[in-house]
Amino acid sequence: MTCIESELLMGEGEMNEALQDHLTGCSACRILWSELEANRHVLRAMGLETIPAAPIQIHPAHHSNATPWWKWTSAAAALLITLGAAWWASRPVKPPQIVSIDVKVTGVAPKAELPYVKAEIPAMLTPRVRVVPVANAEPLRVKMLTPDPDVVIYWLVDSKGE
Amino acid sequence: MKVAMEAAAVEISLAIGQPGSERAFDELVVLHQARILRTAYRLLGRVEDAQDAAQEAFLRLWKNRNRIEGDPQAWLYRVTVNICNDHFRRRTLTTEIGEICDLAPGPEGVLAIEERKRLLMDGLQTLPERERAAVVLRDIEGLSTRQVAEILEVQEVTVRSQISVARLKLAKYVRRNS
C-alpha cells in the first residue's frame, strides 16, 4: 500500500490490516493517523459544547401574520371602488318610461254649466281672405301628426268656425 | 434522550402550521437553537456572526412553516449551511488572513485540546464551503453520512469524499500551524 492509498483510507476513518501494516513501517503516515484521531476526538467534543450566546428571539412582528392596517385598508378601498365601478358599468339601461293614466269618468257635465269663453283673435292673425260659409258642409277635419306614431290629433272645425 | 427530543421535535413541528402556532414555534426554537447556533459558529468562526445566521435560519423557518413537513431539523441545518456560506463569501480575505496569523505556535508533541480546537476552528475557515459544511455536520454535529447528504442535497459518495479530503486538509493545517 502506498502513502496516497493509506491517506485515502485514513481520511475516511477506516482501519484495516493493510493500512495497519503500512502504518507500522511509515512514520509519516503514522503521525498523520494520530493527528486525524486527535482531531476526530476534539471535533466530536466541539459538537457537545454550548455556544455562549443570547437566546434566539424572533421579533413578535414576525410571529404575527397580521397584515399592516394600511395594507388591508387600501385593499378594502380598492375593492369597494372596483365593485362600484363594475356595478355602474353593468347596470341595465333604463327603459323608456311608460306612463299610464287611468281616467275615471264620473259623469258628464251639462253644456250649460261649462263656462264659455270666446277667444278673441288678434287682428294681425285675422285671415285676409273672406270666409264664405258653406251650408251643410261637412266639418273640416284637420289631422295633426305627432312625433309619436301612435298619437294622432284630429281637429274638427264646423261651419261656424267653432 | 435523543429519540425523545426527535419525537418532541416532530410533535412540535406538526403544530407549527396550525393556528396559535407561536408557542409551538418558540418550543422548536428552544429545542434546536443550541445545535443550529453551534453549527453556524463552527462554519463561521465568530459567535456574533453565528447568532445572526441562527436568527436568520429560524426566521426563515417561521416564514416557511406551512411548507415544512415533519421534523424541520434537516431543513434548519440546510438553511443554516446556506446562510453561513453566503455570509462566509461576503467576508474580506484580509480579515481571514489577519485572524490566522494571530495564532500562537503550540508546544511540540501532543497539542493541548484547547489549542487544537482553536487550530481546527481556523482550519475549518480555510476549507471550501462544501467540505466545511460536510465536516461540521458529520464530525462535529455527529450526523450520519446519509443525513449530511440529504441536507447538502448531494450523493452520499460525494459527502464521503468531501469529508475524507476535509479531514486530511485539517490534519495538515494543524500540523503546519502548531
- CA-atom Rg of chain A in angstroms: 58 Å
Question: Which regions of chain B contain 5 or more consecutive residues with pLDDT less than 50?
Answer: 1-8, 92-110
The backbone outline of chain B, from C-alpha atoms, is globular
CA gyration radius of chain B, whole angstroms: 18 Å
Secondary-structure blueprint:
The complex is a heterodimer of chains A (162) and B (178).
Chain A: H1 3-12, H2 17-25, H3 27-46, H4 60-63, H5 69-90, E1 140-145, E2 152-157
Antiparallel strand pairs in A: 1-2
Helix pairs in contact in A: 1-3, 2-3
Chain B: H1 2-16, H2 22-44, H3 47-63, H4 73-90, H5 93-101, H6 113-126, H7 129-140, H8 145-152, H9 156-177
Helix pairs in contact in B: 1-2, 2-3, 2-4, 3-4, 4-8, 6-9, 7-8, 7-9, 8-9
Explain briefly what this protein structure is.
The complex is a heterodimer of chains A (162) and B (178). By secondary structure, chain A is mainly alpha-helical.
